[in-house]
Write a structure and sequence with these properties.
The protein is of the alpha+beta class and 98 residues long. It contains three helices and four strands, in the order E-H-E-E-H-H-E.
Length: 98
């Protein structure tokens, strides 16, 4: 299992546009292979949002990027990222097999 976490810093006047873009980002992530998707508001850092989603494997996540994203998917993601100042930061987490 793999997880992806992206942190966005959104100015108050951009928040509505960001949340609207994230509706489409959520649909894209779920359509392209995510099994779970959540958007959090950071309780400690004002104007910070954290997107997380889970995919079955690292290979599955790579297929999301290579094979499954449409032009519209890329546009929605770019729109959400463009509203973050500073730029959004993404981490890829790979589950440790026990």
């Amino acid at each position: 299992m793999s997880g992806v976490e992206t942190v966005y810093s959104i100015a108050p006047h951009c928040e509505e546009a960001f949340l609207e873009a994230m509706i489409q980002v959520r649909l894209s992530r779920l359509r392209t292979g995510a099994s779970r998707w959540t958007l959090y508001r950071d309780g400690e850092i004002p104007h910070t949002f954290v997107e997380t989603f889970i995919v079955a494997s690292w290979e599955e996540h790579l297929r999301q990027h290579r094979d499954r994203l449409t032009g519209a998917d890329r546009d929605f993601d770019a729109q959400a990222r463009s509203l973050s100042n500073p730029s959004s930061q993404t981490r890829h987490l790979i589950a440790v097999e026990e």
